[in-house]
Design brief:
The complex is a heterodimer of chains A (85) and B (379).
Chain A: H1 2-16, H2 35-49, H3 66-79
Chain B: H1 7-24, H2 28-34, H3 39-47, H4 66-79, H5 81-100, H6 103-115, E1 120-123, E2 139-142, E3 146-156, E4 164-171, E5 174-181, E6 187-191, E7 204-214, E8 218-219, H7 225-262, E9 264-265, E10 268-269, H8 274-303, H9 308-338, H10 345-355, H11 362-376
Parallel strand pairs in B: 1-4
Antiparallel strand pairs in B: 2-3, 3-7, 4-5, 5-8, 6-7, 9-10
Helix pairs in contact in B: 1-4, 4-5, 4-7, 5-6, 5-7, 7-8, 7-9, 7-10, 8-9, 9-10, 9-11
Classes of the chains: A mainly alpha (85), B alpha+beta (379).
Chain lengths: 85, 379
Amino acid sequence: MEETKVRIKAFLARYLQNYDLPDDQDIFSLGFINSLFAMQLVLFVEKEFHIDVSNEDLDIDNFRTVNAIATLIEQKQTQQPQSVS
Amino acid sequence: MHIELTQQQRAKQESFRAFVQAEIQPHADRYDQEERVPLEIIQRMADMGYLGAIIPREYGGSEMDMITFGLLNEAIGRGCSSLRSLLTVHSMVAYAILRWGSNAQKASWLPRLASGETIAAFGLSEPEVGSDAKSIMTTATVNEQGYTLQGRKKWMTYGQIAHLFLIFARNGASVSAFLVERETPGFSVSPISGMLGTRASMVAELLLEDSQIPAKNLLGGRGFGLASIASSALDIGRYCVAWGSVGILRACLEDSLRYSSQRQQFGVYLRQHQLIQQMITEMITNLSAARLLCLQAGYSKEQGDPATVIQTWIAKYFASVKASQAANDAVQIHGANGCSSAYSVQRYMRDAKIMEIIEGSTQIQQITIANAGYQELAF
């Protein structure tokens, strides 16, 4: 879980520029979110962790914090071990 | 590093070009003048597997990789931007259903989209809402049967003939996406004529008057209409337009090379005049650069690389601006002939201008690309 969070934060750091993001911080409150970012975030999660984000996962709470994203990834990896390449 | 098409991609490219040369190019000026394309050519494109280009084989599609899909858009765009725009909107809706649809939605719609039995159109823009998509005014109200949609959509490419519309509507503070069938009570279509470019793409205005949409026709989660569904569909649309602009660039170059080799002024062919050569050089260089940007975006799409999003913006920005410039120069090279309907270059010029407006205007792209530069510092 901790390694997953490190990788998520490394991706988010590209957008945050010198802001040390707490794991429970609402990233949608930080003001840099746009539709382009949202799409890149979904693509990043899928490619980096070898999972498929589906229709049912599109709950904003699944992407609100680093903790929430890491939990989603862990759940998906448990559900979809066959997706790991 | 290899920047080279595979043998299969090259073979597909040749077959796309042969189809366009034989069945589209000879008729494209007429389509433009008549402001419509015949249903027969749409069915031919479906039969060739083009309408199901990005749909998996299990649903009856062609399952092309993204590079091959790009080459298809270039080839169709070379012949007729109005038909390329059909490929665009149809593929955007197919992609949205494939990416975000339920199993039932995929099983219901994807085979029909692949076969051409169902033609799809994309419904985001409104009379008062273009670039500022977050401000759409069409509303979706929840009720026991599903949703009631109320509002207007404008500039829907192929709206005149489409059977299925992906409509974005406001549901409280957020936006959701709905699959709306043409026969839905309270849903009506008005043709729009006299457009500047892509004149044959049968544009329409849509009216939704208390249209009752079943709950099963909601696509994706409630409130994710813009952030996920519209964004990813528009990314595919932008990719198509970028490659379509490469097609226009190639059309401008081919026509200009031919004309300047046949037309004489001051006792020599136009091609021997250095100011003509300068315009030809710009076309050749920009065509190569635009195609490379499109290949880069397509390669990243195949890899699932998040960089594809901004690479697609860059490719579309560059290719559409350079297509406009090339078309402008192509008309200039053709002189008075280029201003007449006897030559295709005047159509390219009008079509290229549309490429700078759809799927993100040039100015929205300049803002987006600059902002990405400040955020990512990764170019």
